[in-house]
Amino acid sequence: MTTDPPAPGSAWAGRCPDAYPVEWFDALGLAALPPGFARFATDAESALIRGVGDGSVSPPRPDPTPRPDGGRPARPSPPARGDRFRALNGFIDAVMRDLTGSEVAVWLVIFRDVKADTGLATVSQASLAERAGVTVRCVQKALRSLAGRGLVTVVRRGRLGAGASVYRVSARAKC
């Protein structure tokens, strides 16, 4: 099981590169599809990805109708009810012990601010620092570390006059 994109030249990359097996999603306790994946795999695609398929999956067909959003990939559906506790439990059980206190505090504050409908949190570094009880510099250091571990993704960097940063959190560190 992996959250990495398919290896170039593999059957997975050639036939369904945007599909992710729901079995892996459930087993890893993910709260959202990993980056680079737009949908869950069908049963035949899932078998192919896991290496037990017969290759009968046809390549994806391009959509002939233009998308109203300008061609951007579809956003994964929001997490189902109860996934937040699964994500929090996974974070506490598998990841938290390897983090510093400020990293844990920053991750938890961002996790608390995640909106259920989008899976994203919009928050400033000053707000993170105040609520986590650390300095802004400490927040910046913690964010770099969390991003390096794959626990936080900066979706949009905030700046003066343009609003706060937007983050996506993950409960599992990348291996």
Distance between the termini: 11 Å
Fraction of residues in H or I helices: 25-40%
Structural class: alpha+beta
Q: What would you give as the CATH superfamily of the largest domain? A: Winged helix-like DNA-binding domain superfamily/Winged helix DNA-binding domain
Number of helices: 7
On the 0-100 scale, what is the average pLDDT? 80
How would you sum up the global shape?
elongated
- Spell out the helices and strands N to C: HEHEHHHEHHEE
Q: Which class of the largest domain in CATH terms?
A: Mainly Alpha
In total, how many domains does the architecture comprise? 2
Radius of gyration: 18 Å
Percent strand: 5-15%
Spans of at least 5 consecutive residues whose pLDDT stays below 50 are none
Instruction: Find the CATH topology of the largest domain.
Output: Arc Repressor Mutant, subunit A
Question: How many β-strand runs?
Answer: 5
- Please identify, by name, the CATH architecture of the largest domain: Orthogonal Bundle
Description of the molecule:
- The chain has about 180 residues and is of the alpha+beta class.
- The chain folds into two domains: about 1-60, no CATH class; about 85-170, Arc Repressor Mutant, subunit A (Orthogonal Bundle), CATH 1.10.10.10.
- It contains seven helices and five strands.
- The protein has helices at about 10-15, 20-30, 45-50, 85-95, 100-115, 125-130, 135-150, and strands spanning about 20, 40, 120-125, 150-155, 165-170.
- The strands form two sheets. The chain has a three-stranded antiparallel sheet. A two-stranded parallel sheet has the order 1-2.
- Helix 5 (about 100-115) crosses helix 6, helix 5 (about 100-115) packs across helix 7 (about 135-150) and helix 6 packs across helix 7 (about 135-150).
- The mean pLDDT is about 80.
